[in-house]
Prior knowledge:
Layout lengths: L10 E3 L4 E6 L2 E10 L2 E8 L9 H15 L3 E4 L2 H9 L9
Parallel strand pairs: 4-5
Antiparallel strand pairs: 1-2, 2-3, 3-4
Amino acid sequence: MSDVAKPLEIIHDEANQVFRAVVDGYDCEVEYRLQDKTMVITHTGVPSPVGGRGIAALLTKFAVQTAEAKHWKVTPACSYAATWFRRNPEYAHLLA
């Protein structure tokens, strides 16, 4: 059984506007739509067999840090991303 303690390999597929990681063979993702210079996070998905390990949080943080590096703002349109921002107020300056 693997856990998130090992580095999570996250791939940013800019063409399809998604951040992906494969954990124990399961696809985990954060989908977004870029509108002008705002990343609108539309979906965060982690299959239940690998849930509860903090994978969604790591993917969301990576997405938000990518937005920050690109000087984009972020709109958390999915409920998970909105909750993540409430739990991580140090990134509130990126909210659109």
